[in-house]
What we know:
The chain is α+β, with helices and mostly antiparallel strands. The longest helix is centred in the C-terminal third of the chain and has 14 residues, at about 165-180.
Amino acid sequence: MHLTRATLRPDLAILTMAGFLEARPRVGYFYSGKSANQLLIEHIQSLMVKDYKSRPVVVQEKTSVYDAICTMFLEDVGTLYVVKGQNRLSGVLSRKDLLKAAMGNHELTAVPVSVVMTRMPNIVTCKLDDTLVHAAGQMMRHQVDSVPVVRIAGDEEWEIIGRITKTTIARAFVELGENISI
Ligand code: ADP
């Protein structure tokens, strides 16, 4: 090609980083045989829950529905997680759960959230080492806006350590669209 090594090397490095070529030290560069589509899929499947999770906003089981509504507004989130003891996941409260409770003729300061939440073991969760695609699939299949990230904390007990929401997935999607260099 009548090009010097110095000219070729940066281009080969870029193609290697993008996954089109494989570099074998002291041997040379080889075509990986992967299409741009395959590389994009591999990249998407490499996104992990542990790198994208955000902070969960939690309330206690005995918190009143009124206080939970205030927390939802103040913390600017769409889902609250209900815990007992040391961050042990016991329930989920969505906007509609709280709206439904507010529509009845109840004294909202007296009703505890444990009465209106969706409770364990009916909560769809994910783990730190799940892929983001798996967490998004869980949200789609179960038609919920978020999944708590949990780790095992004993017999049938789960500690809540994060959350993945539809906003998380939108953020990852935007990052992919803006940064991908395949
Ligand atoms: P919204 O109430 O705004 O539609 P969701 O779709 O997230 O929000 O919630 C719908 C129902 O599913 C609610 O009753 C809620 O308690 C429940 N829910 C929310 N997240 C989960 C989850 N991860 N696992 C199981 N149930 C959930």
